[in-house]
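re: that chain from earlier
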Amino acid sequence: MRSLSARDNQNIINLIVLLVSAACAWFAPLQTFLVAYAVIGPFHYLTEIAWLRKKSFYFSDGVVSPPVYLIVATVLCGVACMDLVLRRGWAAYAIGALLVLALGSLVKNVPVLFGALALLGVTRYFFHGYGLFLAVFVPTVVHVYFFTLIFLLSGAMRAGRTILGWLNAALLVAIPVLLVKFVGAGGTPGAYWMTSEATFAPLHQYIAGVLGLTLHFDPAQALQPGAIAVFRFLGFIYLHHYLNWFAKTELLEWHRVSRRSWVAIWMVYAAALGSYAYSFAAGFYAAYFLSLLHVLLELPLDWRTGVGLISVPWKAWRTSKDGQAVGSIPHPATTKPSRGWGTRL
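^ sequence. v structure.
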């Protein structure tokens, strides 16, 4: 009997993660989202930031050095977070600027990058809601769901004709549709959960509108079918995104960082969780900063994976003489950190 390969084991784990996330989102949609975002999320953000730093943020050959990219991303992340309070529209400009700078990991022509930045800025004035989409949708649903789907597809392509890899990608598309289409009963969350959700309500109402759903949230009333559908969708994609990261511990080896990094991770994680003891709003702002920062720092890797997925899909089906895929999208775990900054972790 043939033993399972590492890829087969990973695909089985991915399938379990999909099913567990779907079950949690179905039976306790609001609780699933809040626990995932408030408790699991910060640990994911911190461990991925440490892993990305070890990899020099996949920006070792970019238009600027990795430390400069980290500084710029942190500053613009702070600007975007301030916009939550000041509401000046800065978040869209900050995230748009980082999208273009992250593209500099692949495109070394500075005038082209400035042209892309100008085009991004001008586009905002011709499409209603474009800035809000950049500020709200890109760091949330686009990152949590669509980028995760891209990574699953790239993994399936690397594995060639392995059915389970493609099944997992198909399930990631189908499950949210089924959760939204067949609403059914979603239970009645307690007062704590409803009050906590009030912090997210404006954001979730916008996301619901973009998805073509209706969300009318009132902490004093039971969840309506539209709200249940939205929370099932958000609960599933967020919990799956986080669990999918932890399921790839051995594959990505994100846990192999220095003891000093782990001390910093646990200290910041404890502070993030402790902020919820003060108020859920304070915890939300702390989690949002970490969430947005890890999104911005991951953008170079997202660009590389997305471009690879589009440009070389046909090569993923060719096999070399030793049976390995040729021309497939390189997996992040196989990319060695560049020498110099970031390799000491």
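The chain is about 70% helix and 0% strand.
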